[in-house]
C-alpha cells in the first residue's frame, strides 16, 4: 500500500515538471544541454555548448547580446533561423550589392560563403540578380562524391532604361534574372557589377544586387529595384549530413544510426542521415530517443488529463 502511494506521488511530480517546462513531445538535445537559442530550436547533432554537439561543423554560437538571443552557424556571421532533423538548415546570408549615386560608386559588397562540410541546397534555392545595369556571377566549387573539387561558374546580365518595361510581379529577365543551382556547391563567391554606373536610372535603380535565396521566399516587384538597397540578408537553405561516407560505407558500423532508426543518403552531398522507423518518433541521432508513437501519445494524453 505504502509503496504504491509513493509510486503515485513520483508520477505526479514527473508530470508537473514536464508540464511546467512545456517541453516538446520528445527531448531534442543531449541531457544537460540547451535545446534552444532565442527563437530557434537546436536539435542534436547541433548544439551550443561543449559536449553538446557532434564535431565542430555542428556548433551553433548563441549570442546573448541580442534580445532574443540569435543563433549563428559555427563562428560565422550566418544567422540560423531553423534546423530540421531532415537535414535542412535555414539561414540568413549577406547579399551582394554594387551601389551608385551621381558622383560614382557609394558601396560594394562581395559576400563569400565557405561551408566546407555542408552543401547549398539545389532543391530549395535559386540564384537571382536584380538591376537594370547589372552583370552578376556566381563561382563555386562542386564537391562530388569520390572526386576532387571542380570549379563552376554561372552568370546573369540585365539591362533596362525605364521602369515601364519591367514586369511588376515576375522575374522575367528584364530587371531581374534567375537561374537554378548545381548540386554539390560548398564554397562560392558572388560578384555583381554595373557597366554604366547606373547613370540615367539612379532614380529607380541605384544598385545592382545578387544573391542565393530560398525559392519559396522569393518575390520580385518593381520596388525591389529600389528597396533592396536597405536589405542586408536574405534567407537560404543549407543541406547538412553526418560525416563524409554514405550509408553503404558506414553499414558495418552499427552505431551509425541509433536504435529504432534507419540510415539514408541525402539527395545532395556526401555523408548520411538517420530517420526514426515508421511509427516511431524522436531524435534519431540521440540514444534511446526513437519511441513508438503509441507510447508517446499515451504519455502526451496523460499530461493533458493532469493539466485540466
Ligand atoms: C520566431 O521566428 C519566426 C520565424 O522564424 C518568426 O516569424 C517569429 O517572429 C519569431 N519570433 C520572435 C519572438 O522573434
Ligand atoms: C555578439 O554580438 C555582438 C554584437 O554584434 C558582438 O559584438 C559580439 O562579439 C558577439 N559575441 C559573440 C560571442 O559572438
Ligand atoms: C542576423 O544577425 C544580425 C547580426 O549579425 C542581426 O542584426 C539580425 O537581426 C539577425 N537576423 C535574424 C533574422 O535573426
Ligand atoms: C554620393 O555619396 C557620397 C558618399 O557615399 C557623398 O559624399 C556624395 O556627396 C554623394 N553624391 C551625390 C551627388 O549625392
Ligand atoms: C563609374 O564611376 C567610376 C568612379 O566610381 C569612374 O571611375 C568611372 O569612369 C565611371 N564609369 C562610367 C561609365 O561612368
Ligand atoms: C572566393 O574568393 C576567394 C578570395 O577572394 C578565393 O580564395 C576562393 O577560392 C574563391 N572561391 C571560389 C569558389 O571561387
Ligand atoms: C507591384 O506589385 C506590388 C505587390 O506585389 C504592389 O504592391 C504594387 O502596387 C505594384 N506596383 C505597380 C506599379 O503595379
Ligand atoms: C572528411 O574528409 C576530410 C578530408 O577529405 C577529413 O579531413 C575529415 O576528417 C573527414 N570527416 C569525417 C567526419 O570523417
Ligand atoms: C563508427 O561510429 C563511431 C561513432 O559514430 C565512430 O566513432 C567510428 O569512427 C565509426 N567507425 C567507422 C569505421 O566508421
Ligand atoms: C525502441 O522503441 C521501443 C518502443 O517505444 C522502446 O521500448 C525501446 O527502448 C526503443 N529502443 C531503443 C534502442 O531506443
Ligand atoms: C527578395 C525580396 O524582394 N524579398 C522581399 C519579399 O517581400 C517581403 C515583404 O513583403 C520583403 O521583406 C522581402 O525583402
Which characteristics define this entry?
6-stranded antiparallel β-sheet; binds 2-acetamido-2-deoxy-beta-D-glucopyranose; 4 helices; mainly beta; elongated; disordered C terminus; 21 strands; 308 residues; 5-stranded antiparallel β-sheet
- Element order: H for helix, E for strand: HEEEEEEEEEEEEEEEEHEHEEEEH
Q: Which small molecules are bound?
A: 2-acetamido-2-deoxy-beta-D-glucopyranose
Number of strands: 21
Strand content: 35-45%
So what's the oligomer here?
Answer: single chain
Mean pLDDT: 86
- Helical proportion? 10-25%
The best one-word shape is elongated
- What is the rounded distance between the termini? 27 Å
Largest sheet strand order: 3-4-5-6-17-10
Task: Describe the protein's topology.
Elements: H1 2-21, E1 36-37, E2 40-41, E3 60-63, E4 70-73, E5 79-83, E6 88-94, E7 96-101, E8 104-109, E9 112-114, E10 119-120, E11 125-130, E12 133-142, E13 150-159, E14 176-180, E15 185-193, E16 207-214, H2 224-227, E17 233-239, H3 247-250, E18 261-264, E19 273-276, E20 280-281, E21 291-292, H4 293-307
Bound molecules: 2-acetamido-2-deoxy-beta-D-glucopyranose (11 copies).
Question: Can you put this structure into words, describing what you see?
Answer:
Strand 4 and strand 5 form a beta hairpin. Mean pLDDT is 86; it is low at 1-23 and 303-308. Helix 1 (2-21) crosses helix 4. The protein has four helices and 21 strands. The protein is mainly beta and 308 residues long. It has helices spanning 2-21, 224-227, 247-250, 293-307, and strands at 36-37, 40-41, 60-63, 70-73, 79-83, 88-94, 96-101, 104-109, 112-114, 119-120, 125-130, 133-142, 150-159, 176-180, 185-193, 207-214, 233-239, 261-264, 273-276, 280-281, 291-292. The strands form six sheets. It has a six-stranded antiparallel beta sheet with strand order 3-4-5-6-17-10, with no helix packed on it. Strands 8-7-16-11-14 form a five-stranded antiparallel beta sheet. Strands 9-15-12-13 form a four-stranded antiparallel beta sheet, with no helix packed on it. It starts with a helix and ends with a helix. Bound molecules: 2-acetamido-2-deoxy-beta-D-glucopyranose (11 copies). One 2-acetamido-2-deoxy-beta-D-glucopyranose binds at residues 104-105, 196-197, 199.
Amino acid at each position: 500500500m505504502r509503496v504504491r502511494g509513493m509510486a503515485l506521488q513520483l508520477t505526479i511530480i514527473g508530470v508537473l515538471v514536464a508540464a511546467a517546462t512545456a517541453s516538446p513531445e520528445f527531448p531534442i538535445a543531449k541531457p544537460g544541454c540547451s535545446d534552444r537559442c532565442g527563437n530557434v530550436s537546436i536539435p542534436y547533432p547541433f548544439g551550443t555548448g561543449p559536449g553538446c554537439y557532434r564535431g565542430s561543423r555542428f556548433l551553433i554560437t548563441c549570442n546573448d547580446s541580442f534580445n532574443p538571443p540569435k543563433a549563428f552557424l559555427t563562428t560565422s556571421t550566418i544567422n540560423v533561423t531553423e534546423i530540421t532533423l531532415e537535414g535542412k538548415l535555414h539561414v540568413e546570408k549577406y547579399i551582394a550589392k554594387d551601389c551608385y549615386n551621381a558622383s560614382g560608386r557609394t558601396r560594394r559588397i562581395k559576400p563569400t560563403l565557405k561551408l566546407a562540410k555542408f552543401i547549398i541546397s539545389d532543391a530549395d534555392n535559386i540564384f537571382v540578380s536584380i538591376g537594370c545595369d547589372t552583370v552578376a556571377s556566381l563561382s563555386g566549387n562542386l564537391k562530388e562524391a569520390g572526386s576532387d573539387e571542380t570549379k563552376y561558374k554561372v552568370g546573369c546580365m540585365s539591362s533596362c532604361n525605364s521602369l515601364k518595361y519591367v514586369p511588376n510581379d515576375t522575374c522575367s529577365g528584364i530587371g531581374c534574372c534567375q537561374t537554378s543551382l548545381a548540386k554539390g556547391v560548398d564554397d562560392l563567391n558572388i560578384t555583381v557589377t554595373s557597366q554604366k554606373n547606373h547613370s540615367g536610372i539612379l532614380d529607380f535603380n541605384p544598385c545592382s544586387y545578387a544573391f542565393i535565396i530560398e525559392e519559396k521566399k522569393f518575390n520580385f516587384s518593381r520596388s525591389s529595384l529600389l528597396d533592396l538597397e536597405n536589405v542586408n540578408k536574405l534567407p537560404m537553405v543549407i543541406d547538412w549530413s553526418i560525416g563524409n561516407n554514405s550509408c553503404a560505407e558506414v553499414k558495418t558500423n552499427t552505431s551509425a544510426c541509433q536504435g529504432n532508426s534507419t540510415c539514408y543518403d541525402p539527395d545532395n552531398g556526401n555523408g548520411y542521415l538517420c530517420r526514426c522507423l515508421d511509427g516511431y518518433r524522436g531524435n534519431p541521432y540521440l540514444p534511446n530517443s526513437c519511441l513508438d508513437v503509441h507510447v508517446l501519445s499515451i504519455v502526451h494524453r496523460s499530461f493533458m488529463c493532469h493539466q485540466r
